[in-house]
Amino acid sequence: MQPDELERSVRLVEQSLAAGEAWESGVQFAMQAALCSPSFLFRVERDVDPLSSEIRPLNEHQLASRLSYFLWSSMPDDELLDLADAGQLTAQLQGQVRRL
């Protein structure tokens, strides 16, 4: 959770309490906001230099993540992570796509 999102969550709880709602209701509003947050819903790979227009290839772990979420809608399994750790996923990409 980003600092600005945390501040919004705290404000939601405070507003709920000020309106006479139970603490639990305020926390429920804050949790709903967190679960709807783009940083919770979407996977974002930030560039080292966000102002750069240079195209860079994905590193092994980014590739494992994209492949797994695209095909399984879930995090990479141990085999993908092991290949990424060893720097061998790019070389074995076709075989891993077939396996998944």
TrEMBL record:
DUF1595 domain location: 2-45
Pfam families per record: PSD4, PSD5
Sequence ranges assigned to domain DUF1592 in this UniProt record: 58-100
InterPro entries linked to this entry: DUF1592 (IPR013042), DUF1595 (IPR013043)
Protein name according to UniProt: DUF1592 domain-containing protein
Organism of derivation: Planctomyces bekefii
Organism taxonomic ancestry: Bacteria, Pseudomonadati, Planctomycetota, Planctomycetia, Planctomycetales
